[in-house]
Every structure is written in C-alpha cells, then in structure tokens.
Structure prediction request, 431 residues.
Amino acid sequence: MKLTLTAAGDAVMVQRMNPGYAGFSAIKDFVNTAEAKLVNLELVLTDKNCFASSFCGGTWVTTPKSVLPDLLSYGFNYCSLSNNHIMDFSYGGLRSTIDTLNEAGVAYSGAGENLFEASKPAILNLPSARVAVISIGSSFDDSARAGNANQSFRGRPGLNPLRFETIYTITEEQMKTMQSIAAETYINGEHSLLAKDGFVSGGEGGIFTFGGHKFKVGKVCGKETHPHPADLERTLKSIDDARRVADYVVLMVHSHQIRTDNFLEPDYFFEEFSRACIDRGAHAVIGGGTHQIKPIEIYKGRPIFYSLGNFIFQSNVFYEQPADFNEMYGYPSDTSAPEALEIRAEKWTKGLHSKPLNFRSIIPHMTFEGEEMTSLKLMPIELGFNRGRTFKGLPTDTDAKTIEEICAWTNEVSASYGTSFRVKDGLLELA
Prediction:
C-alpha cells in the first residue's frame, strides 16, 4: 500500500488564464508527480445568478464557472471548500459551486446541504490507494456554518466548522479594573439579563465575561485557545469512519487565527486540533488561510503544514463587487470595484498585495508506504509579485536565490517545532 500526494495552498482565481504562460508547465509537472492532488478552492463558482451574503471573507470572491477548467488544468483531482469565502454568495453560491464541481467530476469536501454532508470526507479512488480527505475551517461568520437535520427540520447548508474558545489571563488588579468598567458602562448588561432568563450561559467558575470575551485571573498574562469539543469530536469520529473505508486520511484546514500579533505562529487551538487528528489516525494535516508559509511540524512522523500560503492570488483584479462592499467601507455607491479596491489598499501600498511574502509558497510532495511517511519534498514557488496584472498571482517555478530564501524562511518559522529543510536539486527536503 502506497500513497503519493501533492497539495497546493489557497486558490483565489478570478480571471481566466492562458495555460501556456511561462512557468505553468513546471507547476503542472510537479503537481502531477502524485496520485492525490489537492487544492483549496477559495472562491465561489457562479455566473452571478445568486445574491451576496451580508458578510464576506474580506472581499466577496466569485468567479465564472468557466474558470474552473483553468484551475484543474494544473492536474488537481480534489478541492477543499471549508474556507471563509465559500458562503460569500449565500446558499445559491454554495449550490452553484457544488453543482459545477459535480459536473466537472472533481472530488470535494468541507461544505454541503447540512452538517453531515459538509463534514463527511471526499473519497479518492486512486491506482495505488483509497484516500479520504476531510475539509474543515475555523474562519467564518457564524451563519455560514452547516447545521444538522433532526426529525422536525432540514439541516442548514454551509461549511464544516471548527469553532474554538478563547480565554484571556489577566492580573487580579486588572480584573478589578475590568469589573469596575463593566459595572459603570453596562457593557455586560444585555448578557447578564439573558443569563438570568436562561438564554445564554451564566459563565463558568472563575471566568468573567467582558463584552463577549472571557477573562480569568492568573500570574502570567496571556491567552489560551481550545477547539470546540463538539467540532473536535465530530472530526475525530470522521477520521475513525474514514479509516474504516480508506487506506489514508488527510485533513485540509483553513484558519486565519493567530497566536499573538503576527501571522508566523498558528493559534493554540489549531495546534491542539491538528495533533489530536494525527493521534486519531490522520496521515497529514494541510493548512492554509493567512496567505503565507507558516511552520511545518513533523508530529509522530506525520506532517502538519500550518499554512502552505497562496497558490493563486488574484484578489486585486475584481471588476465587480456587490453593493455591500461600498457600504461596508463607506465609499460612494457609484464607486467601481477596481477603484474601491485601490482606495482600500491605498493604491496598493498596503494590504495583502503589498507584501512579497504573500507571493511565495510551497507545494509539498509526500510519499507514504504503509503507515509511514517515507519522503517529503517541497517545491518552492512564486506568484509574480513584480509581474504585471496579467500574470501577477499565478504560480511559477523560481530561481536558485529565491529557493534559498524560501528555504531559510521555512526553517525560521519551523524552528520552534524542530523542523528544518535543505535545498537539493531545486527542491526542499528534510535536513
């Protein structure tokens, strides 16, 4: 029993592309060195035949259905859907995306008509093995998460959610100040009334809720986060069932949460969740979300990629946005989408498209023989930070200098996990 797998990061692809562009073949060839070829589809496939949600993942991301074949031309046979954009265009957008993937014959998981459908794995029947892929995300508006059906009502369409709890630790003196502020401002007034009437929890012992955030007293200030018990247990049960029907189990996780005040470290709950999944029998956890390469951990011999970064990044070239976009930012209603995006990014001097780091990524290639990972190689790629609009955001192979820089960056962010790589034949391999 053997599995070869490649995985790409977030695909925010909103424009058609010419498969003959310089660098396309190198990416396609590497992706196709494996049997399982995974990518995070971070968009909604529509022909503008549905309405926008009142929320979005930062920008409302939709692309014509005709763009999907361009993405699949790299060779992917699976798309992950549980991310912060899949519900940008409500239930109609979700159904349009799923219908388009079904018509194309592409496997997917992470969203569906109810929580059962959203949380069940996709099954890839490959020449050498059967692989189950579970998709889950922690960054979403609460109304975007899928819900269970019961004997009375249908389930709710949406994404497979990974909720989490955050508790902040402060000093006793800080707690007294906070309680005084709460008493004088009534910031907890509505919550207190709801708790008295049983509509919300009254709070746990030693926990003080301030404006919706939880605090406790301790000697060292900081925070802790933990995965929601129900979401963790549902995922672990999915892994159990997947192990019963497939040879290998892989998780795709989309998470924007950070540990402190930078994007370099995954939040504590993501780390706890990923390790629990490996402990339960998953063979790999592949993360994305915050647009740059995050740490790689080899946990009990199996890889956890806390973020691969972007694979395609075209979120600067939208020609249209719903009216909600201008309302959200306070722009005049007749402001065009290209102009509004440029204003928001201060003519692209700030924001995600101003940072070269967001235009560097990796594509891992993993080989498993039996239960063991026997090989891990990473292809460093770049997305054309300095290229013109036609090609900026599209992945290509890169030069020796950039390969060394990506290796150095990956080693720097992974150092706390004891993981390091070296360059060999243009790829990164475990040192």
